[in-house]
Amino acid sequence: MSASSTQVNDLLRAGAARPRRWGSLLPISPALLFLGFFFLYPVILLLGLSFVDNSGALSMQHYAHLIEKAVYVKVLLVTLKIAGWTTVFAIIAGYPIAYLLS
Prior knowledge:
This protein has helices at 3-17, 29-49, 61-68, 70-101. With 102 residues, the protein is an all-alpha fold. The longest helix is centred in the C-terminal third of the chain and has 32 residues, at 70-101.
């Protein structure tokens, strides 16, 4: 190993040992608040509402209705199939692009 690579390794180890400060997350906090309010909050709210029936009692009624109807199961399977193929194509296209950019 050369002297410069040893120095780089020492600097990397010193940086990894330093404790992370919360101040470094300050610039991204508006984006996290925006995402939390406009994405996570509605998703959590709808997920909670899916476990409640019309009278307000906890129930699996909506999920039973989803499984009972063949058209809903078919649509769900098609959606998952499209999502799966989209993921495969994104990975196949993304790895060469990431390799070229690095």
